[in-house]
Amino acid sequence: MTLRIGCIADDFTGGTDVAAAFRRAGLRTALVFGTPDAGTALPAECDAAVVALKSRSTPADEAVADSVTAQRWLWAKGAAQIYFKYCSTFDSTPQGNIGPVTDALVHAAGGAATLHCPASPPNGRTVYQGHLFVHDQLLSDSPLRHHPLNPMTDSALVRLLSAQTPHRVALIDWPTVRRGVDAVRDAFTAHQQAGARHIIADALTDDDLAVLGAAALELPVVAGAAGLAEGLGHAYPTAGPAADVPLPQQVRAAVLAGSCSARTLEQIAHFYAAGLPSLHLDVLAAAAGRDVTGEALTWYDAQDPGLPVLIHASAAPEELAAVQAQLGVAEAAAQVEELLGTLASHLVERGVRRLLVAGGETSGAVTTALGIRAVLIGDEADPGVPWTHATPEAGDLALMLKSGNFGAPDLFTRALSTAGTDMGKDTDKEQT
Ligand SMILES: Nc1ncnc2c1ncn2[C@@H]1O[C@H](COP(=O)(O)OP(=O)(O)OP(=O)(O)O)[C@@H](O)[C@H]1O
Ligand SMILES: O=C(O)[C@@H](O)C(=O)CO
């Protein structure tokens, strides 16, 4: 058993993001969906295993129970170190779940202090003087201040985390990080001796995160976003680069989108502009009993099999608000997830072998409907957006689970462009 690091991610697309980070660091990485049990197996021998939970917005006691179960499973598979992956925008509330889950993981691992850093520089998340930035804005000035579940109206990480834990929270500032691994270790020890349990570190670049990763190599629990996971991964001695997992070629390809994030809407617009077959699902009609799934499949069967297709519930804010006002937020989401999950099963039955899913909740619905419990991580199409490969029992399926705000505007067209027979031309990769 070669497993070195076990990771618990608090949502599915966060799971693919952190798994891609470990793979970039040269670790062979597997991703398991949902709370594992004694019968859950890893899909292959690997250096890093990520368990992706849906624990970001659940009640804190459920999130804690699922996370500790995942921790025990990862330990049983041989993991010596546990990484808790939360969102690079620190998505949480004063009730949790970052504080309670980290406290429980640390307690189960013996109570030594933990290092935190949510920085993820490739996606514009940096931490300076303990304040979290999203590109050039403080978190609290960014669109995250309007998040529907956990509006982020404060950027001060020590204050945010202190509200979620009874333990002391301390900061290692950027000048210390710049002085290198020994300086970080000394500062960490001093904070721990002064009674801190959670020690947040500043980081502006991948080099800073490499310093933090090396400093944290011996800690039983480390916490943050994908950036620190990659820093930690680079600190592990590896046998060599992770092997390539080839993408299925000349196959049917589809995008299923339920994310209404601004970046997903741009990616959808790009797909329409490329003249590729696209279908918008009528959520209100489905709620009223119309066979929207059957209509979508009839539409799909009429398309050129050599072209990728897009089927989406994703809608602009005005349409989303109107649907939610009529059905209620939870019922609207349930309708969409039922539609997209059912369609995913039918599309795979019809031979789709490259499937791109946009949105964290949507990804949960699709993987559950397809019965996929574990995948291996392949190449990234964009930072934090890798292809994943389902185990053979699920068929030779390449699956891409995309966080709402991740990926360049041309991601959908580019990722699927080499799948079919008629669409040989790669579009140029645009920068985010
Ligand atoms: N037309 C629609 N009307 C109402 N709700 C919708 C509609 N389209 C999508 N939704 C709901 O919006 C939510 C989008 O969440 P999801 O997590 O899939 O995307 P996201 O928040 O952009 O992604 P991430 O969590 O990765 O940032 C889902 O619950 C989905 O069911
Ligand atoms: O860290 C991030 O921003 C993402 O991996 C994520 O968690 C999206 O839900």
UniProtKB/TrEMBL annotation:
Question: In what residue span(s) does the Four-carbon acid sugar kinase N-terminal domain sit?
Answer: 5-232
Ranges of residues in domain Four-carbon acid sugar kinase nucleotide binding = 254-412
Q: Which reaction does it catalyse?
A: 3-dehydro-D-erythronate + ATP = 3-dehydro-4-O-phospho-D-erythronate + ADP + H(+); 3-dehydro-L-erythronate + ATP = 3-dehydro-4-O-phospho-L-erythronate + ADP + H(+)
Gene Ontology terms for molecular function: ATP binding; kinase activity
Q: What class of enzyme is it?
A: transferase
Q: What does this protein do?
A: Catalyzes the ATP-dependent phosphorylation of 3-oxo-tetronate to 3-oxo-tetronate 4-phosphate.
Write out the similarity annotation: Belongs to the four-carbon acid sugar kinase family.
This one is known as 3-oxo-tetronate kinase
Q: Which organism is it from?
A: Streptomyces acidicola
